[in-house]
Amino acid sequence: MKLVDSIFKNYINIFSQSKYFLGSLIIIMIIYFGNNHIPFTFSQQQLPNVNDPSLKIDRVADGLQSPTSMAFLTNNSLLIAQKEGTLSMLDLNNPTNIEPILELSNVNSKNERGLLGITIDNNKSGESSIFLYVTETRTQLDQETQDTASNDDLRNRVYKYEWDEVEQRLSNPKIILDLPAGPGTNHQGGKIKIGPDNQLYVVIGELQREGQLQNFREGPEPDDSGVIFRVNPVDGSPSNNNPFIEANNGDKGGNNNLLAKYYAYGIRNSFGFDFDPITGKLWDTENGENLYDEINIVESGFNSGWKLIMGPFSKSEAITENDLVNFQGSHYSDPLLSWEQSRGITDLEFFKSDNLGQKYANNIFVGDITRGNLFFLQVNENRNGLQFDNEPNIANDHIASSEEEISSITLGTGFKGITDVETGPDGNLYILTYSRADGGQGALYRISENTTQ
Ligand SMILES: [Ca+2]
Ligand SMILES: [Ca+2]
Ligand SMILES: [Ca+2]
What we know:
Neuraminidase; six-stranded mixed beta sheet; six-stranded antiparallel beta sheet; binds calcium ion; mainly beta; 2 domains; 29 strands
């Protein structure tokens, strides 16, 4: 504070000689006292705020272009997917060095398309596979083999690469899922993860389609939109015990089962999911159009209700559950929490560490893209829902509506936009940001225990 005070005095000396003294002094005082004890810092240097004094936040890396997802490769390095098609490695020991290790060609990054997801699978034999989710016009395989019989369609593809630890490079891409990418340029989904069952989970949004997967009975057949996939990470084949794999769904069942790879459907769009480290259950976030962003437990066969229902069932007019497209083996259930006004809820992370104290261990962090808030949510004792000890108005209806209700679940502000949240190997919380106002400029932040308080 001493340095700041002397700067403050200098300003007063300069301005006291001018006829603008009084006006200038008032402006300085507004800045000084209105800025929550961090005066005279440039806005891009300002750290986000975390409203728990037992925690501290620091900026690990800056100047990332359009970061969408991250995955820790080792204790000290992570891979960051960037929307335009670059995969970069960040060395935590030297975080000013952000090194591109893969540049994908023919990436379509219009609106919500692009290189959107990454996950790493370390198998038992010590080999690592890296999975990427990308919107593209030609396959990366065509580029490697110079195959002229390329596919010019725009597609969302999940690739599996081998990771060469010695050469530090990705090689031998293989298509695991080949999915549609239109007509909508938004709602492409993109998050991917290996579950505790060692299966690969992938989410795609509804691509602004209106088919049976969007609960239109007379709409087109299932077409891989608005779905969470569960597939074998070796080859993308349907996982054993998938909910619709043996169900009798007319011509959608049997040998040409259009539903075989699906774990869930009726999802408008999602930018995040994770597995409860205690129960193994899948939880997701979903985005409403104007109303109702959601958090759900996604049990096998889940139908989230879009485009007939968003948010709680009781808020949808003149709809009964029989109006949904109920494939055999499916079930509808309400969200555990809804934000009444949509704000682009993105990633969801179970915090798999007790480094920040018991309060945070195995509970949930969630980010949003439009305002850059970090939410903290506590799982209930049975781990089948959320508890809201401080705010009865959320506990009552599981809808966060008023500013008071929303602030009761807000832990951090000022992140501009959050695309990914991860528990680091060091047991701290890592937050990847993306500022839509600044053309996708991003940063990586770390929240750890404040040992100086
Ligand atoms: Ca829903
Ligand atoms: Ca409420
Ligand atoms: Ca994450």
